[in-house]
Amino acid sequence: MEKVMKLASERPVVIFSKSSCCMCHTIKTLFYEFGASPAVYELDEMPRGRELEQGLLRLGCSPSVPAVFIGGDLVGGANEVMSLHLNRSLVPMLRRVGALWV
Description:
The chain is α+β, with helices and mostly antiparallel strands. The chain contains five helices and four strands; from the N terminus they run H-E-H-E-H-E-E-H-H. It has a four-stranded mixed beta sheet, sandwiched between helices. Helix 2 (22-34) links the parallel strand 1 and strand 2.
């Protein structure tokens, strides 16, 4: 869990993902289309990805991916991110942490 939080605080937007996960792909695409450049950690391609996945589960991420952190804070998974987007809260949140310039 400590390693997850360290990685999550290194960039304005961090996404923990798996390369085979369609919802992960959808969430990453959403952020890229906004013009954000999230740090993306593909857990299934990392030597210690399983440990990070266990840390995400301990933080309450269920399923463990996608897990989105904005400004070092856990936002949640696909449902939470899409809810923020639909109620027009996501873009202002991204601007506040410096992930978007415009």
